[in-house]
Structure formats: structure tokens, C-alpha cells
């Protein structure tokens, strides 16, 4: 059984939109008040406030006359917002995330409804305090005999409404095994190069709308703060950014699905994309972000699990570009401007990206076979789920 989320766009009626906007506003208010209370308690009294205390605070807030409007919306999204805040703090103290930020109205917002706050009847979704079903555009049907356990309503910065339905899919989606194995070297000029010689060009979605986005942002900056014209300009900028994100995401989904269907084993490098973006100049960091490497690897990871394929990640410090795939010679330096080179030991001529992908595949197969390290310096690369071997 696989947990999945199906996302759809919907177009609420004026009554539904009014209710949903009030719900999102209340969720944002409760989240921000709880975050402020927890922050103040820690910095002033060195006390930690947990979910149970904030839940009690919510009950008291509802009794106050100035916050009486919190009773006009479903209580479930408010409680879920407090749970999400608790998760954010848990991740922060565990070192998995940054300190929680306050929610802002211009970013849209989301509200999560559990089973007690919605109904799924005859293929339609009814949320609490609303008699009519959400007018969802069903771009694809849910799997048979599956009902959502939770739904999340989201308003994005460009003003579009989405609903995400989380289900447990009992269907077995394992694909028939194939013999093909590939290594993938991620890049910028070519989005990635495979060990069998295939190069996929980088569409550079951001560049396609860069001029239009730049003009829209200039227009936005000229508008008076707090004016209606500034809000219209903000929405225009958000729509352009949403279009860039949508085309990038769609392209990545198509590529990863094709790779998973055609290959049994896929080997990639475990790149720290966030660190790469921080440590490079703005122009290069923007190109790295537009390449969407992190999302590509993330999609390959869960799709490999769904469809019965094997994804292997090797150490990011493995010298895939500097190593000769023919004799194993490792060059001392390999600047980014060198796209082709000759091995001084065996005189083999190499395309930089193709050579790297061949080395990545070889290293990944070694990891898959015995969990071996792929660097002389005792790399940490291991097959996902396998135990790390202690150096002898």
C-alpha cells in the first residue's frame, strides 16, 4: 500500500471562496500567535511551550470577544495548523530545518481538513460548513475503492485554488524488470548525460520568461505600497513565476517517468543543491536552481520505489569527471570550462559529461554489489538501506 496525494485545481463559488479565505486567515492568525507565544516564552522565560499548551491557548482565544470570528470556521484546520507548527519546531531542534517563520497573507496559504471535517460522497468533496461540493476539475480519477484520509486546500500567490487529496493506494504498480542500467551526470548545458551516450538538453524555463518577469517586477516596485494597483502588479508577477514553476515541474515529471520506465537501475550523485546555490554567484546559482536537480533526484527516488526500480546515490565527492573511465587515472584538476580531455596514461579521448556518467554507473554498481566504498579516502557512499561497512 502506497501513500499518494492527488492534486487538482478547483474554482470555488463566491460563497465558498469567502469561507475558504476566512479559514485561511484564521489558520494564519492562530499559527502566528502560537509561534509568537512560543518564541516569547523561550527568549524571556527559557520555557518550552508544546502543542498541548498551544491547543489550550486556542480554546481560550476563541472565548475572547475580539477573536470570536475563530468560531465561524471549522476548528480542524486550526488544530492542524498547530500540529504543523509543532512539526516545524521538531525539525528545527533535530537540525532538519530552520526556525519557523511567520505566515504572510501575500503567500496565499493552506488549510488541512481531516476526515471529521469533510465528506467524500459520490466522487465529490464536501468541506465543513459548506453545503455545496467543491467544483473540482477532475483531470484524472482517483484509484478505485480509494477514499481520501485528509484533504488540503491551498491558495497560491497567483490566486489559483488547489485541493490535494491524500489516499492509500492498494494497487501494485511494479513494472516488469528490464536489464538496462544507466548512470546519470547532472549538468547545466545538458540537463543530464547518461552512460549510454544520451544527452538531454536544458530547456532553461526561467530564461524563456525572464524579460517578461523583469518588466513585471519593475512595474510592481514602482507602485505605491498598500495600493490596489500594487496588489494587481504583485499578482501579475506571481502568475509569471507560477508559469515558470509549472513548466519546470511538468518537464521534470516527464523525464523522470521516462527514465524509470526504461531502466532497471539508475545511479546518480548525491548533490547538495542548497549548498551549491549558496556558494556560487547569483547568475550561476540561478541557473542551478532552474536546472531543478534536487527535484529530479527526489522524483526518481519515490518513483523507483513505486515502480520496483533501483536508485543508487553515490558520494558527491566521487571524482567522476576527473577519473578516466578506461584506465582509472585521476587528473589533478578539471576546470568547468574543459568539456573534452585526453587521458595522459592511456591516450583515451573523453567527453567530460559522458565520461562522468560512465564512472558514476561503475561506482553505483560497485555499491549495489557489495556496499563498497567508491573512493580511496573511504567514501560514505552506500546503497540506500544497506549498512555502512567499517574500514579495515
Question: Would you kindly provide a written description of the structure presented here, covering whatever features stand out?
Answer:
The structure is a single chain. Strands 9-8-7-10-11 form a five-stranded mixed beta sheet. With 392 residues, it is an alpha+beta fold. Helix 2 (51-63) runs antiparallel to helix 3 (75-93), helix 5 packs antiparallel against helix 6 (228-262) and helix 6 crosses helix 9. It starts with a strand and ends in a 22-residue tail after the last helix. The chain folds into two domains: 2-169, no CATH class; 173-392, no CATH class. The longest helix has 35 residues, at 228-262. It is 42% helix and 17% strand. The protein is globular. The protein has helices spanning 14-45, 51-63, 75-93, 205-208, 210-222, 228-262, 273-278, 282-291, 293-307, 352-370, and strands spanning 2-9, 109-114, 118-121, 124-127, 150-155, 161-169, 181-186, 190-194, 199-201, 265-269, 310-314, 340-342, 349-351. Residues 376-392 have low confidence and may be disordered.
Amino acid at each position: 500500500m502506497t501513500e499518494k496525494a492527488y492534486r487538482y485545481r478547483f474554482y470555488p463559488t463566491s460563497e465558498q471562496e469567502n469561507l475558504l479565505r476566512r479559514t485561511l486567515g484564521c489558520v494564519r492568525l492562530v499559527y502566528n500567535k502560537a509561534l509568537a507565544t512560543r518564541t516569547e516564552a523561550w527568549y524571556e522565560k527559557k520555557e518550552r511551550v508544546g502543542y498541548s499548551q498551544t491547543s489550550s491557548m486556542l480554546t481560550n482565544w476563541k472565548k475572547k470577544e475580539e477573536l470570536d470570528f475563530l468560531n465561524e470556521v471549522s476548528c480542524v484546520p486550526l488544530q492542524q495548523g498547530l500540529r504543523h507548527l509543532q512539526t516545524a519546531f521538531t525539525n528545527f531542534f533535530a537540525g532538519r530545518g530552520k526556525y519557523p517563520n511567520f505566515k504572510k497573507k501575500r503567500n496565499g496559504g493552506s488549510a488541512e481538513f481531516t476526515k471529521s471535517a469533510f465528506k467524500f460522497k459520490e466522487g465529490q468533496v464536501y468541506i465543513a460548513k459548506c453545503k455545496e461540493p467543491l467544483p473540482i476539475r477532475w483531470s484524472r480519477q482517483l484509484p478505485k475503492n480509494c477514499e481520501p484520509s485528509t484533504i488540503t486546500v491551498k491558495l497560491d500567490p497567483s490566486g489559483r485554488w488547489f485541493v490535494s487529496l491524500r489516499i492509500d493506494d492498494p494497487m501494485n504498480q511494479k513494472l516488469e524488470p528490464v536489464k538496462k542500467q544507466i548512470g546519470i551526470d547532472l549538468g547545466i548545458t545538458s540537463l543530464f548525460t547518461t552512460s549510454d551516450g544520451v544527452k538531454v538538453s536544458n530547456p532553461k524555463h526561467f530564461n524563456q520568461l525572464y524579460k517578461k518577469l523583469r518588466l513585471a517586477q519593475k512595474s510592481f516596485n514602482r507602485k505605491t505600497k498598500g495600493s490596489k494597483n500594487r496588489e494587481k502588479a504583485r499578482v501579475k508577477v506571481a502568475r509569471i513565476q507560477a508559469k515558470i514553476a509549472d513548466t519546470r515541474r511538468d518537464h521534470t515529471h516527464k523525464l523522470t517517468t521516462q527514465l524509470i520506465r526504461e531502466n532497471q537501475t539508475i545511479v546518480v550523485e548525491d548533490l547538495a543543491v542548497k549548498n551549491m546555490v549558496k556558494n556560487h554567484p547569483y547568475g550561476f546559482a540561478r541557473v542551478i536552481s532552474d536546472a531543478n536537480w534536487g527535484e529530479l533526484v527526489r522524483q526518481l527516488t519515490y518513483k523507483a520505489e513505486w515502480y520496483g526500480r533501483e536508485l543508487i546515490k553515490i558520494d558527491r565527492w566521487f571524482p567522476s569527471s576527473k577519473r578516466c573511465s578506461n584506465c582509472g587515472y585521476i587528473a589533478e584538476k578539471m576546470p568547468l570550462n574543459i568539456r573534452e580531455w585526453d587521458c595522459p596514461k592511456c591516450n583515451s579521448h573523453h567527453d567530460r559529461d559522458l565520461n562522468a556518467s560512465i564512472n558514476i554507473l561503475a561506482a553505483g554498481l560497485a555499491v549495489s554489489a557489495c556496499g563498497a566504498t567508491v573512493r580511496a579516502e573511504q567514501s560514505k557512499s552506500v546503497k540506500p538501506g544497506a549498512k555502512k561497512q567499517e574500514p579495515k
